[in-house]
Design goal:
The structure holds two protein chains of two kinds.
Chain A lengths: L4 E5 L3 H13 L4 E5 L20 H5 L8 E4 L4 E5 L4 E4 L2 E4 L2 E4 L3 E3 L12 E3 L3 H11 L4 E5 L3 H12 L3 E5 L12 H13 L3 E3 L4 E7 L2 E6 L5 E4 L1 E4 L3 E3 L2 H5 L10 E3 L10 E3 L4 E3 L2 E2 L3 H15 L13 E5 L2 E7 L5 E7 L4 E7 L6 E7 L5 H7 L8 H7 L11 E3 L4 E2 H9 L5 H8 L9 H10 L16 H11 L4 H8 L8 H11 L16 H5 L2 E2 L5 E3 L10 H13 L3 E4 L5 E6 L4 H10 L12 E6 L2 H4 L7 H12 L8 E6 L13 E6 L2 E6 L11 E7 L1 H18 L6 H7 L3 H9 L7 H14 L3 H6 L2 H4 L18 E4 L2 E4 L21
Parallel strand pairs in A: 1-2, 1-7, 2-3, 7-19, 9-16, 10-11, 10-16, 11-12, 18-20, 33-34, 34-35
Antiparallel strand pairs in A: 4-5, 5-6, 8-17, 13-14, 14-15, 20-21, 22-23, 23-26, 24-25, 25-26, 27-28, 29-30, 30-32, 31-32, 35-36, 36-37, 38-39
Chain B lengths: L2 E3 L11 E5 L7 E6 L5 E6 L5 E5 L14 E5 L2 E5 L6 E3 L15 E7 L2 E5 L3 H6 L12
Antiparallel strand pairs in B: 1-9, 2-10, 3-4, 4-5, 5-9, 6-7, 7-8, 9-10
Classes of the chains: A alpha/beta, B mainly beta.
């Protein structure tokens, strides 16, 4: 146990950032965290996503903090600076150094009735849960506050299905960030969503009338009859603990600190929204993070100082992009207004019009990264051009800060590019740029291009197009053969890269049996023989066992087939049985027996759905809360035979114990008390990745519909051999964007995705049965074209542990380096 | 179609071995054949009906599987990719385009009276003097 005791009060976003920084930089501190809320830190910035299917778990920022004593639900009640102790209800905690990160509380104006049932603030997950409970079966809500928080809250009420009214005291919306014209355009957008907006209006009195609420306002004759009222009209620093202990307080509240985050007591630091940094409280997370880093550095013996706050913000409020950067007003301004499109932009310039000082964007925030990083430099381009393309040479000076969350400059990024970072993921790893809010990711791409990195997405030397582009070409032109596609859109004869990729696209778009006609020549050997090639030239056979559920009779058939054809058997990781050592000429005989017993192809050989694993679920398990086996079978039967850019794996767990390991799958489903959680983009294999939560607590119908869309969107847009994990990471906007596309239909493609999945389900037919019923296809299953029934004499077996294994060294990689798979080709 | 095709030494030799009917081969795919001495070869029919024959043995693994590879071209040179570890070989010269030290044996092949025939006795000559490769590019 270390003798250096550090107590942290508060586990919010900033407190958590501080803990991560201090445990990394100076693990010698014995850290105790006193937190009021019952759950670990969560993403308060994205709070309204709670109602958007994300749930509490999706917002969590919980991280592994070695050696930290995290006491949730144990708020600090008093601070005794003389004794250097913090007291809680259950005891006292002595410290050598103390960090106060108590954040702020929602501001509720002192009006009559503000404490009635049905009046809420908008701050914590508990607040949201209470709002949700109140909204049940009711129809109208009022939000007091038309700033950032108020609009967030209005969005949340709208998601709960309430008719929503915003009441704002200022003359226009977001008055702190926007000018009157910008606020006007924003109001237009908000009203279009059916949300009422009343500016220059304040509530004066709330009373209860027949189980509902009535709020009077300062405008003659204007009152609102409503079911619930949410105050989201600003926050106040929670500086009570500090005040009572005699720490110096800022003029407008908050614990006064200097630029090293130190308070008037040399052993006490304050960070985040509770800190009045040189007298100013900041209500944004980025300055809070900066303070967390400064305080951690100081406690680790460093000399960091607060670099000054960048108050730039970019948000998507109710689907409307709003951004503000640098100064909102200044000597000169150039503006752009398109009322029809609902776009307003303003650049604030120095009086010689040479230097960009700041500005704002409403309705189209694409140029935001470029403009924000360009503050203090020359004006990058004409406003209209910026808004039309969002691109243009960045023309940024080396000192421009590209990522404000992590304070990364252009010079650092270009340095990383020169040292070999060739994509956004590498830049994120190397510089941390883009790992915060992500708004600079488009800029990172541009800088990569400026640094001369050309990331080719062409499939191979025969097609300059990416797989996604080929998919669109095939879909739009209706081309059904590889030869026509390469003649019209490619060059040469094709190769082992483009042929299987095109075969997969043709199959995804409904090309009939994969061995029909010309398609047969495109298939990889596994698809060509509908079995998995093993290292000695024999194949393995995997019948489908949906959800891992199988009858004793079917198990016996598998045993008999394996015995009669001398096959080695092994249980796979996907809850089915693999039979190895099958000769080409035996495959049809093996499958005749399997098909007659009711088996069908397991597609273990294809870039297609493999298995949907399941735990035992509610039928047998003491803990299960949902019927995972039934769901797994339904999903496996729905998506069997679906061809995709790479293999697809899935699993369904019946409860949070997650016995099926669903979060390691391309799409994983976990049962909850209220329905299902859907996770996507997980992977085991070479680079393991936990899947991201896409939906929480949804019913079976919503679950299946969303998986349908997820798979079809992936199939249409992923690169060749790109697993869903990499694909999800490659999406600009990541999982949130994916949710917008699949749930809110942002791209307007959901109907098409649904129709394509319906067509897949409709046309599914067992591939092996298709071969057995077709003498021409059966002809191909021969060892030698001039001696069809002669077994390959080079294949030999030996018996080990009672089963047959390939004999000798056949197929084992021989001495010297060999190519393991095909490396990605870059051109 | 009665023409000598792709005979590396310009002739099929004195004792060609009939393999199968030309129509039996699927355009764009290979087939394995067993020669009387136990040698296995891979015969490929391309979409333009040209024919090639190589050893069926994948030199990187020792498995007799080359006939099951995907054919195509690299820079215009006709190729086949090993179905096991995907190295690409020239169908004309047998050279591995991903590893210049590795060569597959090439066999003379022709079609006569609709029958595909392979010149088994030319193997030695081919091995001694592999034809030059038109393009030699390594996968990056």
């Amino acid at each position: 146990m270390s003798d250096k005791r550090l107590v942290v009060v508060g586990d919010g976003m900033v407190g958590r950032r501080f803990l991560e920084a201090i445990t990394e930089r100076d693990p010698s501190w014995a850290v105790t965290v006193l937190a009021e809320e019952p759950r670990p830190a969560y993403d308060r910035v994205r709070l309204s996503a709670f109602f958007d299917g994300v749930g509490a778990e999706g917002l969590s920022l919980a991280s592994d903090l070695p050696g930290v004593d995290l006491r949730l639900g144990e708020p600090a009640t008093a601070l005794d600076r003389a004794a250097r102790t913090v007291r809680t209800a259950s005891g006292s905690h002595p410290y050598d150094k103390l960090v106060l990160a108590t954040g702020s509380a929602a501001f509720v104006p002192p009006i009559e009735g503000a404490d009635l049932d049905g009046v809420f603030v908008y701050r914590t997950i508990e607040d949201l849960e209470a709002i949700k409970a109140r909204a049940e079966g009711r129809r109208h809500g009022v939000v007091v506050g038309g700033g950032l928080l108020g609009l967030e809250a209005a969005g949340a009420l709208r998601l709960l299905g309430l008719e929503t009214q915003i009441v704002e005291f200022a003359p226009w919306l977001m008055a702190r960030q926007l000018d009157e014209a910008g606020g006007g355009v924003l109001k237009q957008h908000i009203e279009k969503l059916g949300i009422g907006v009343a500016c220059s209006t304040g509530g004066t009195r709330i009373e209860e009338v027949d189980g509902r609420l009535r709020m009077e306002t300062d405008r003659e004759g204007l009152a609102y009859e409503t079911d619930l009222i949410v105050f989201a009209a600003g926050v106040r620093p929670r500086d009570g603990l500090a005040r009572e202990s005699g720490l110096e307080i800022g003029e407008r509240g908050g614990i006064l600190t200097d630029r090293s985050c130190l308070t008037s007591d040399p052993d006490v630091y304050a960070i985040g929204e509770v800190a009045a940094m040189e007298g100013t409280c900041y209500g944004l997370v980025a300055p809070g993070y900066a303070m967390a880093e400064v305080a951690a550095d100081r406690l680790a013996g460093g000399e960091a100082t607060f670099p000054g706050a960048d108050l730039s913000t970019k948000l998507k409020l109710l689907g409307v992009d709003v951004a503000q950067f640098g100064a909102a007003d200044g000597p000169l301004a150039t503006t752009y207004l398109d009322p029809a499109e609902g776009v307003y932009a303003k650049l604030v310039l120095s009086d010689d019009a040479q230097t960009l000082l700041g500005g704002m964007l409403v309705g189209n925030a694409e140029p935001y990264p470029l403009l924000r990083a360009g503050v203090g430099g020359p004006v990058p381009a004409a406003l209209a051009d910026l808004l039309s393309s969002g691109e243009a040479e960045t023309g940024l000076p080396d000192t421009a800060q590209v990522c404000s969350c992590n304070a990364v400059t252009k010079a650092e990024i270009m340095g990383a590019v020169r040292e070999g970072c060739a994509d956004v993921a590498a830049l994120k790893d190397c510089t941390r740029a883009g790992t915060g809010c992500g708004s600079c990711v488009p800029m990172l791409k541009q800088l990569l291009a400026e640094g001369g990195v050309e990331v080719s997405t062409s499939v191979c030397e025969h097609f300059t197009q990416s797989r996604a582009e080929l998919f669109d070409i095939v879909k739009v032109t209706g081309i059904t053969t590889f030869s026509e596609l390469i003649a019209r859109h490619g060059t040469g004869a094709g190769c082992d890269l483009c042929k299987p990729a095109v075969a997969s696209i043709l199959a995804s778009l409904g090309g009939g049996h994969i061995l029909d006609g010309e398609q047969a020549a495109l298939q990889d050997t596994n698809d060509h023989f509908l079995a998995n090639l093993q290292r000695n030239g024999t194949y393995s056979v995997v019948p489908r066992i949906p959800g891992g559920e199988i009858t004793p009779e079917k198990l016996i058939v598998i045993g008999e087939v394996a015995r009669d054809f001398g096959l080695y058997t092994k249980i796979t990781g996907g809850q089915r049985i693999d039979m190895f050592g099958a000769r080409v000429e035996d495959l049809p005989k093996i499958w005749r027996r399997l098909v007659d017993a009711g088996f069908e192809s397991g597609h273990a050989y294809g870039k297609s759905l493999r298995t949907v694993k399941s735990c035992v679920g509610t039928d047998w398990c003491r803990y299960g809360v949902q019927d995972s086996v039934k769901m797994a079978i339904d999903l496996e039967l729905r998506y069997r035979g679906l061809r995709s850019p790479h293999k697809l794996k899935s699993a369904v767990s019946g409860c949070a114990r997650e016995c099926a390991e669903a979060r390691g799958k391309d799409f994983g489903v976990i049962g909850t008390e209220n329905g299902w959680n859907l996770y996507v983009g997980g992977n085991g294999g070479f680079t393991p990745r936990h899947a991201d939560l896409l939906l929480a607590d949804v019913d079976s119908e919503t679950l299946v519909r969303t998986i349908d869309r997820f798979l079809m969107f992936y199939i249409a847009t992923a690169d060749r051999l790109q697993r869903t994990s990499k694909w999800v990471e490659s999406l600009e906007g990541g999982i949130d964007y994916l949710r917008e596309v699949l749930v809110e239909d942002r791209l307007g493609i959901c109907a098409e995705l649904d129709a394509r999945m319906a067509a897949h389900v409709e046309r599914y037919a067992d591939e092996w049965k298709g071969v057995l019923d077709d003498p021409e296809k059966l002809q191909r299953f021969v060892s030698f074209v001039n001696a069809p029934d002669t077994p390959d004499p080079s294949i030999e077996f030996e018996t080990v542990r009672g089963q047959r294994f390939p004999a000798g060294t056949a197929g084992r990689p021989q001495a010297g380096p060999v190519l393991l798979g095909t490396p990605e080709r870059k051109r | 179609m009665d023409t000598a095709l792709n005979s590396p030494a310009g002739r099929i030799g004195s004792d060609p071995v009939p393999i199968c009917g030309f129509d039996h081969l699927i355009p764009g795919r290979g087939a394995a054949a067993l020669l009387p001495d136990g040698t296995q070869i891979a015969v490929f029919r391309l979409h333009d009906d040209s024919l090639f024959a190589l050893s069926n043995r994948d030199p990187f693994t020792g498995a007799q599987v080359m006939s099951r590879g995907i054919v195509g071209d690299r820079g215009g040179e006709p190729t086949v990719a090993s179905p096991l570890l995907k190295q690409v070989f020239s169908l004309e010269s047998g050279r591995c385009l991903d590893d210049e030290d590795t060569v597959l044996e090439v066999f003379a092949v022709e079609v006569r009276d609709g029958q595909v025939r392979v010149g088994a006795d030319l193997r030695a000559a081919v091995l001694c003097r592999p034809p030059p490769c038109r393009h030699r590019r390594k996968r990056k």
